[in-house]
Amino acid sequence: MKVSGEGFSREGETGLDTERVQILADQLRHLTSKGIQVACVIGGGNILRGKQSDSLGIARATADYMGMLATVINGLSLSDALEAHNVSTRVMSAIDVHKVCEPFIRRRALRHLEKGRVVVLVGGLGSPYFTTDTASAQRAIELDCSILLKATMVDGVYDKDPNKFDDAVRYDSLSFDEVIDNKLQVMDQTAFTLCREHNLPITVFDMSAEQGLVKAATGDKIGTLIHN
Fold first, then answer.
1. Chain centre distance of CA 150
2. Tell me: domain 2-227, CATH 3.40.50.10380, correct?
3. What is the per-residue pLDDT across 91-104, written as a single tens digit (0 to 9) for each?
């Protein structure tokens, strides 16, 4: 699962909203109670985006590293909320912050999943210029995940921007080729190519929908499913 940083704050605001974190934690608790193994890649856009480097007057690489640290803050908040629900978690980071996170090691992450722990993945891929979309695709493939759930602030993939066009149409299902042919924006190109090459299905859904994560993970009709 990929959770954008915006999912940790109120709509139109920045910072951390504990109520939203609690709602997400409750849904993850529900999934683990069903025996579903969950790994979450966390974004940091509610605190800082690397693309803000121009307005901040700092180098893009530095801003990207700052954004990675922002994902650590979000990941720790989610971990604590889950532990409060008696759900065992492990926060694993692609950057070295060993005082608060384990380093990401594939075999160790798989072992945590086998033990029913929610694995919270922070720090992106540990390198600048790569988005958390790419990190989520990479980690999903590494961890042999069945599907990539992309939790966003929109309820699926549209033929045009629904915030700008009232006649925008939402797709229930798309093939990878249809996304390319229609030049639809699902995630960044590197991430999408990884999913396509490894036949990893993607569900794009609105994380603010009631029990949206639970529905997406258990196969209920929600958002847009992209597959071969």
1. 6
2. no
3. 999 999 999 999 99
